[in-house]
Amino acid sequence: MERANPINVTIKADKPPTIYMTDQRPAHCDFLLRGAKWEINEYEDCLLSTQEFTFLDNHLQLVEMSVYHEVALDLNIQKPSIFMVIMLEGFYRYYREDRLNFYAVGGATYMLYCPEITLELRVNKGKHSLLVIDIGKQLLQDVGKPDTKLTSLINSLFDYSQKLSTVPMCRNDRQITTFLNTLRMLKVDSFVREAELAILLADLLKGYSAKLENDSFIKSQLSPELANKIFVYVQENFNNDGRLSITAIARTMGISEWKMKEYAQLLFGKSLHKQVRDLRMRVVVSLLKKTNMPVRSIAESVGYTTPTYFYRAFRSCFGISPQRYRESSRETDPD
């Protein structure tokens, strides 16, 4: 029996979206559940695409959003559930009854228990992607052990608690990469694949639990409001070197430079310099794959004014030249 998706997503908009299904990967989508169709919702302020499937009593949904202006979404949780959320990129703020509950950043994974509630999700301009896994009770019972930091979360589900519960974010690691690569390469209609995914998910849960026990989670005194302000500033100015120094951002945020360095590492899991480089390279790669823009024009569009510096930065990230990357990506893209 097909497991129903426990989350109903509604974007708050004046006009209803144009909705359609497709077998071909849309140009704005950077991730892939191979073999699953895309549902596309086109709104005035954003483009929302989802892929989903069920494997052995677990439901998985890949959500990608291209947001043109800040939007708010209602997440209606239709049954008590425990979710593992793998943040691929972006920044999300979760509200309940107009109160900011928590935030999540790209490059991190977290878990939460949700009763039958409605959460409001607010998303800023930019690209935001996440993988949401509704974990079945059987797997939770198989993996769960007494006296761990996940125990109370699991107990909330079996006790039908009415309280929303979250556990800390942990940085994405090699296990996450392996799981994502499996989703990309294998077809969804294979029973062998379902069994393999269940094993990988069980390993993810064990690895996540071990990180919590070892205190290897993201620790912060950074308020959600300031976290959002920093994230938005970097997103909007990543192609403007003059506004991206630690000094300039710290002055804008009204904090010290050493605090700004600490918060950048917390939010992005890397230095501000590397975060800006990665934001630029993400746009560069997308334009190389999807357009015929000259490489030099692409470099200038993301803030590189010196071609030599751009080529050196690109090669340090990908090991090949931009032109060779463009050629090879078009040769090997499975869709």
Automatic annotation (TrEMBL):
- Could you list this entry's UniProt keywords, alphabetically sorted: DNA-binding, Transcription, Transcription regulation
The Gene Ontology terms for molecular function here are:
DNA-binding transcription factor activity; sequence-specific DNA binding
Q: At the top level of its lineage, which domain of life is listed?
A: Bacteria
Q: In the UniProt record, does the keyword Transport occur?
A: no
Q: In the UniProt record, does the keyword rRNA processing occur?
A: no
Domain HTH araC/xylS-type, residue spans: 228-328
Q: Which SUPFAM superfamilies match?
A: Homeodomain-like (SSF46689)
**Under what name is this protein listed?**
AraC-like DNA-binding protein
The source organism is Sphingobacterium detergens
